[in-house]
């Protein structure tokens, strides 16, 4: 007899979970443990660095190996008399918030591995040594570390599929739909964490290019657009190269620095967005020009 579609998907969830737990075991019990053991001898790398690389992988590993995988296995063994997994996944969902920390830390972890591999040959050798083992399947530590980042979207896809294939009268329908909604919320939460991290990194990059003007550095600012612009001087009928940064609350009017030491730009003027007006001009001599007028002053600018 043909297995019902929803059971096939539930079995795929169990199989991928088993493979995932093996991967977590490799990260936590092999890479993390062995690097930590070496770090304690003080020869390779500071213990703090190892902890920063692996973030909260131990909690994630324990949760999946000691709770979620066994529960899932039990469900699949009882499938014929009790075809349901929705309730187990509902128990899983709140714990997936642990991933927020791991995901946010991922880029930094990869940077640390690269930096310390250059600084400490023994550290690099130990990683290379573990990577040669059969269990690593010719993949790098960084590659294995990506797995938890990709796991939540995978749950979401499998569960969506599962709910779609459930017969309308299935006893698991209510639970499975609720579980899917919970997983969806967690996935959104972890995506928001990544987006927020990227926004802050971009913002920090802009501040460095501006020479870290103290009163501009505000983490709640949002950079909307930046780019070169020509400033039109009507007095002597010429233009000069300037650069604009538009934030949600202010426009920075900058001059590119000739000598690039540290900052790339010097801020000449800050204009509040509040009360700012922009008006296009039909100037035959200077096409694509517009006026920006704010509380601070009025600028005539020419776009490319």
TrEMBL record:
GO BP term, pick one: filopodium assembly
Superkingdom of the organism of origin: Eukaryota
Sorted UniProt keywords: Cytoplasm, Cytoskeleton, Metal-binding, Phosphoprotein, Repeat, Zinc, Zinc-finger
InterPro entries assigned: DBL_dom_sf, DH_dom, FYVE_RhoGEF_PH, PH-like_dom_sf, PH_domain, SOS1_NGEF_PH
Domain PH: 222-304
Alphabetical list of Gene3D superfamilies matching this protein: Dbl homology (DH) domain, Pleckstrin-homology domain (PH domain)/Phosphotyrosine-binding domain (PTB)
Ranges of residues in domain DH: 5-193
Alphabetized GO MF terms: guanyl-nucleotide exchange factor activity; zinc ion binding
GO cellular component: cytoplasm; cytoskeleton
A Pfam family hit: RhoGEF
Subcellular location: Cytoplasm, Cytoskeleton
PANTHER family linked: FACIOGENITAL DYSPLASIA PROTEIN, FYVE, RHOGEF AND PH DOMAIN-CONTAINING PROTEIN 2
Protein name, as recorded: FGD2 protein
Organism: Pachyramphus minor
């Amino acid at each position: 007899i043909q297995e019902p579609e929803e059971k096939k998907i539930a079995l795929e969830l169990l199989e991928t979970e088993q493979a995932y737990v093996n991967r977590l075991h490799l990260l936590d019990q092999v890479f993390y443990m062995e690097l930590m053991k070496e770090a304690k001898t003080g020869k390779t790398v500071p213990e703090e660095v190892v902890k920063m690389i692996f973030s909260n992988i131990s909690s994630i590993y324990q949760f999946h190996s000691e709770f979620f995988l066994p529960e899932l296995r039990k469900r699949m063994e009882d499938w014929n008399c009790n075809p349901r997994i929705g309730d187990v996944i509902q128990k899983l969902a709140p714990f997936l918030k642990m991933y927020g920390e791991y995901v946010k830390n991922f880029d930094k972890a990869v940077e640390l591995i690269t930096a310390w591999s250059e600084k400490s040959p023994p550290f690099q050798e130990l990683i290379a040594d573990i990577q040669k083992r059969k269990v690593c399947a010719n993949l790098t530590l960084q590659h294995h570390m990506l797995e938890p980042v990709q796991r939540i979207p995978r749950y979401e896809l499998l569960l969506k599929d599962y709910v779609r294939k459930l017969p309308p009268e299935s006893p698991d329908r209510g639970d499975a739909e609720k579980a899917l909604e919970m997983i969806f919320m967690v996935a959104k939460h972890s995506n928001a964490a990544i987006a927020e991290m990227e926004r802050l990194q971009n913002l920090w990059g802009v501040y460095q290019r501006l020479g870290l003007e103290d009163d501009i550095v505000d983490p709640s600012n949002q950079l909307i657009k930046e780019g070169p612009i020509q400033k039109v001087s009507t007095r002597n009928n010429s233009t000069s190269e300037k650069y604009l940064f538009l934030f949600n609350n202010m426009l920075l009017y900058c001059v590119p620095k000739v000598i690039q030491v540290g900052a790339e730009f010097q801020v000449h003027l800050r204009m509040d967005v509040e009360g700012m007006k922009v008006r296009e001009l039909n100037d035959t001599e200077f096409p694509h020009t517009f006026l920006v007028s704010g509380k601070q002053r009025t600028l005539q600018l020419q776009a490319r």
